[in-house]
Design brief:
The chain is mostly helical. The chain is built from 2 helices and no strands. It has a domain of 29 residues. The model has no long low-confidence stretch (mean pLDDT 96). InterPro entries: Helix_hairpin_bin_sf, Put_N_fixation.
């Protein structure tokens, strides 16, 4: 598998992970004020997932531009 294909597969997995983190945060928001103390934990997971996804998408663009 080429580096480009490997990166695309990784991005697909990261995208699913980010979407799940977003949905978990959304579900938590619907239950508020129950579990309000978990807001930062869920928000950090979503933030981290989307940050990694953005980094890897940037890496893919850089790879495709070389």
């Amino acid at each position: 598998m080429s580096e480009r294909e490997t990166l695309k597969a990784e991005i697909k997995k990261l995208s699913a992970k980010a979407l799940q983190a977003k949905m978990d945060l959304h579900d938590l928001s619907e239950e508020l004020p129950i579990n309000w103390t978990s807001i930062m934990v869920f928000a950090q997971k979503a933030h981290d997932a989307y940050a990694e996804l953005e980094r890897r998408n940037h890496d893919l663009k850089a790879l495709e531009n070389t």
